[in-house]
Amino acid sequence: MKKKTYSCSLCGKEKVVSPGEAVPECCRQPMTLKLDKCTRPFVAETARNEADDEPCDDGTDTSL
Ligand SMILES: [Zn+2]
Q1: Dist. CA 38–CA 28, nearest whole Å
Q2: How many whole angstroms from 59 Cα to the centroid of ligand 1?
């Protein structure tokens, strides 16, 4: 089983949790799941039009 990495959208802190564990919280809000399949560079300041916890699909992004 692969562990999941979550990051905090406020402070940028990352936390790795085991599969099946609850979503960790940081800065009093649920952390955002990072998907390592997504190789698209993440630029926070230009990603405002996307949902902040939208999963990335590898190779299936048709928005480009
Ligand atoms: Zn935080």
Answers
A1: 26
A2: 29
